[in-house]
Amino acid sequence: MPQTADINRQILLASRPVGAPTLNDFKLVESPLPKPGPGQMLLRNIWMSLDPYMRGRMSDAKSYADPVAVGGVMPCGAVSRVQESNLDGFAAGDLVMCYTAGWQDYSLSDGSMVFKLDPNMAEPSQALGVLGMPGFTGYMGLLDIGQPKPGETVVVAAATGPVGSVVGQVARLKGCRVVGIAGGPDKCAYAVDELGFDVCLDHKLDSLADDLANACPDGIDVYFENVGGKVFDAVMPLLNPHSRVPVCGLIAQYNATGLPDGPDRLPQLMRLLLSQRIRMQAFIIFDNYGPHYPEFLQTMTPWVAEGKVKVKEHRVEGLENAPQAFIGLLEGQNFGKMVVKIAD
Question: What is the pTM for the complete model shown?
Answer without folding.
Answer: 0.87
